[in-house]
Design brief:
The protein has 331 residues and is α/β, with parallel strands linked by helices. The protein has one domain (16-326): Purple Acid Phosphatase, chain A, domain 2 (4-Layer Sandwich), CATH 3.60.21. It is built from seven helices and 15 strands. Strands 7-8-9-10-11-13-12 form a seven-stranded mixed sheet, covered by helices on one side. Helix 6 runs parallel beside helix 7 (245-258). The longest helix has 28 residues, at 192-219. The two termini are 30 Å apart.
Length: 331
């Protein structure tokens, strides 16, 4: 789904979300976790991580991806990288080789790599004659066979039963979660079989979101970050049910009840932005403790660097990281 909606709101090149630091320690698995990285998971210790998504659609982007990988790996203290979906173009055939190659690339990241699927990866596979539900099942077997992240270093994740792509982890007092929420109207409205898939997955997603905020409150988390693929404010035809209404209504309730910074990270519409589009149903005003971050996407092969620092009065800082080797010649 490559449609774009310009949302009224406050857009910042760099945005900070206010808050206070709270605890939580992450356990690293495997080799390569040095003392600095272990300290980064402790309460009060600053850390950074990377956000990417929506790339390797074209030959140009595939050629540039190793530069992106090298640039992220050149930052040795990154706690992890999160990919918010879409590993190929939606019109391309959903060949096994693409997924296998992608997993190999993901395992070349030095830090743990957490991935949530995108619509190009399964929902849209019918566009090239594929079976979207079979491809989703394939992705689950390939990318989510157990509760370990990808990457050279592994991180243990909590997974939702029956939906292993929905993960949750805590790092330095921040609660993170991924949800399988897709562009292309979240796989709703194409045919009866896929509508049934949507109904079941929607229930699971709403439960996972609710449990994430419940856990964050119980643990005293300072903030919550949710990562999914879809732009839920994308344009939906007037005669079509929206596949995002339930999620946005629950997000509104959970964000208000939590009362601390909440960030939604997504890709899908390929427009890098940081803004505040979530409006209160009753107040008709912008919900201040909610921030939306859309990562770089095709054709821009860059990444977003997120800093969390307890010693700063602001918790999150988002910095676009432009990969020099991937700059476009505008002459």
């Amino acid at each position: 789904m490559r449609r774009r909606l310009e949302v009224a709101g406050l857009v910042f090149a760099v945005l900070v979300v206010s808050g206070v630091w709270s605890g939580g320690v992450l356990s690293w698995q495997g080799k390569g976790a040095d003392a600095a990285q272990l300290r980064a998971g402790e309460p009060g210790a600053p850390f950074e991580f990377a956000l990417i998504g929506d790339t390797r659609y074209t030959a140009e982007q595939r050629a540039k991806f190793p530069n992106l990988l090298a640039d992220i790996n050149a930052h040795p203290n990154l706690a992890f990288t999160v990919h918010d979906g879409d590993i190929k173009a939606g019109s391309d055939a959903c060949l096994d080789s693409i997924y296998l190659e992608t997993k190999d690339l993901f395992n070349q990241f030095n830090a743990p790599l957490i991935f949530t699927p995108g619509d190009n990866d399964w929902t849209d596979c019918h566009r090239a004659g594929g079976d979207s539900l079979e491809r989703l099942a394939f992705e689950r077997r390939l990318f989510f066979p157990d509760n370990q992240s990808m990457g050279k270093r592994k991180m243990t994740l909590q997974q939702q039963e029956g939906y292993p792509e929905n993960a949750r982890w805590t790092y330095g007092g921040v609660m993170f979660a991924t949800l399988n929420i897709q562009g292309s109207n979240n796989n709703l409205g194409r045919n009866a079989e896929n509508d049934q898939e949507y109904i079941k997955r929607n229930i699971a997603n709403l439960n996972w979101m609710s449990q994430t905020f419940d856990s964050a409150k119980a643990n005293g988390s300072i903030a919550v970050m949710i990562v999914w693929q879809a732009n839920p404010w994308d344009t939906i035809p007037a005669n079509q049910l929206t596949g995002f209404g339930d999620q946005l209504r629950q997000m509104e309730r959970d964000v208000i009840a939590f009362g601390k910074p909440v960030v939604l990270v997504h890709g899908d519409s390929h427009y890098f932005r940081i803004d505040k589009p979530l409006m209160g149903t009753k107040s008709k005003r912008r919900i201040e403790n909610f921030t939306r971050v859309e990562t770089f996407g095709t054709d821009d092969v860059h990444w977003l660097r997120v800093t969390v620092d307890a010693n700063d009065p602001n918790v999150f800082t988002f910095r676009p990281q432009i990969v020099t080797a991937n700059l476009v010649n505008h002459n």
